[in-house]
Amino acid sequence: AKMMNFDLNCSPPEEDEPGRQANTPPAGEEVDMELQEEVDMELQEEVGMELQVEEAVHGQAAGGQQLRRKRNSMLDEQRYAAYMALHTMNLARGGKFKRNDKKVVAQIFQVGVQHIRKIWTIAERQKALGQEVNVSTGRKGRCGRKGKDDTLSKIPTVPLNRRSTLRSLARQLGVSHTTLYKKLKLRKIRRHSNRLKPFLKEKNRRERIKFCLSMLDETTLAAPRPKFISMHNIVHIDEKWFYMTKMNRCYYLLPEEADPVRTVRNKNYIGKVMFLTAVARPRYDAEGNMTFSGKIGVWTFVQEIPAARRSEYRARGTIEIKSDNVNRRVMRRYMIEKVVPGIKKVWPADDTNPILIQQDNARTHILPGDAEFAEAVATTGLDIKIINRRLQILLI
Fold first, then answer.
1. What's the predicted TM-score (pTM) here?
2. Pairing state of beta strands 234-243 and 283-284?
3. Residue 322: CB partners within 8 Å, gap ≥ 6?
4. N or C: which end of the chain has fewer CB within 10 A?
5. What is the pLDDT of residue 148?
6. Any alpha helices (H) in the chain, and if so which ranges?
7. To the nearest whole number, what is the mean pLDDT of the chain?
């Protein structure tokens, strides 16, 4: 028996009229042969593109990859090109379309077939009204659906302790974390780092104002806009803790170098040392050259003590460096033996103005009228005084 193969997906060919040869125009209709050839070539190209699209789609599906998502909109140039393709097909088929013509055009432009149908419907309606065909979207500027910001209006009603993270805030608003993250990127909401500040009484406020007024230049008080003094004669001192090492450090080594080994007895209790620092404002000449860096000195609160007992790590009497217990007696000794000689060593010789050492109101600091400190300063020939500022003034 003879087997015959039929493709059930192909539409059957249209029957020709009796007495007329196949692929010839009906009687009474004249077709330009050149136009017919151009139409046939365009149809062949479109069929070829259709086959390429189908092969690409089937190839992606066979390979297990995700299919490409269709676009939701088209540019005006693409819409006009789609209309011209539909118009060419319509002319070639005697004012009709085959079953998959619009689907082919939709696959070429990677949009849904409903977009192509809508373009053709708009063009047909305009031609029926005698208007010029215009299939552009007509969208200008920032068009499209605007996002709803109803959720943002509820943010001020959420307690601050529930707004510390985006996830916590999203849970309170009943939205997803991604929604708030997008709003943050669009700058619809902002991130704020908040820091505690000292509570100021009325007395503290007046002291702040007095401190600011004390820095005004008295010679400019009569001017409409008074000026501040240069503050070059003020030396700031303060203490700071520094750890001997860190948990994690980064080093740059040669390939053949061995990795360094750092050990401590307990990594939760790394040794630390307190430093005393004294600095002032740097000074420059008329040409911008630095004449005084303002760096007076940095000193450690340590003491060298011989070991009282022997151990497996060192012999008895070995000099050990240990942190010093900072109190007012130790601070007075450092001010007399370290700070004052450091100021005398680096202070500009042409500056004869009084030098003010400004310190905070810590209990370990010496008082401004300390007698031993005044005697030590008198031997240097400098005019050095100590001034204290309250904690509520220094904290910002």
1. 0.54
2. unpaired
3. 302, 303, 305
4. N
5. 67
6. 33-62, 76-92, 101-109, 113-128, 166-173, 177-185, 202-214, 328-334, 340-346, 371-378, 391-394
7. 82
Q: How confident is the model at residue 30 (pLDDT cuts 50, 70, 90)?
A: very low
- Going from N- to C-terminal start, the domains of the chain cover 33-128, 152-185, 195-228, 230-241+266-394
Quote the DSSP letter at residue 216. Answer: B
CA angle 175, 178, 182 (to 5 degrees): 110
> Cα(208)–Cα(197) distance, rounded to whole angstroms?
14
For residue 89, the tally of other CB atoms under 10 A from its CB is 20
Tens of pLDDT along 67-116?
A: 556 667 788 889 999 999 999 999 988 888 888 889 999 999 889 899 89
Using CA atoms, how far apart are residues 247 and 267, in angstroms rounded to an integer? 7
Q: Is the pLDDT of residue 143 over 90?
A: no
What would the pLDDT profile of 367-382 be if each residue is shown by its tens digit?
998 999 999 999 998 9
Residue 105 contacts residue 53 (beta carbons within 8 Å) = no
3-class DSSP assignment, residue 158:
coil
Q: How far is CA 337 from each of CA 205, 241, 305, 383, rounded to the nearest angstrom?
A: 36, 21, 19, 16
- Which residue's entry shows tokens 């046939």? 40
CB 169 within 8 A of CB 163: yes
Task: Give one DSSP letter per residue of 333-370, joined into a string.
Answer: HHIIIIIHHHHHHHS-TT--SPEEEEEE--TTSPPTT-
Nearest to 360 by CA among 233, 216, 211, 217: 211
DSSP assignment of 262-293, as one string? Answer: ---S-TTS--EEEEEEEE---EE-TTS-EEE-
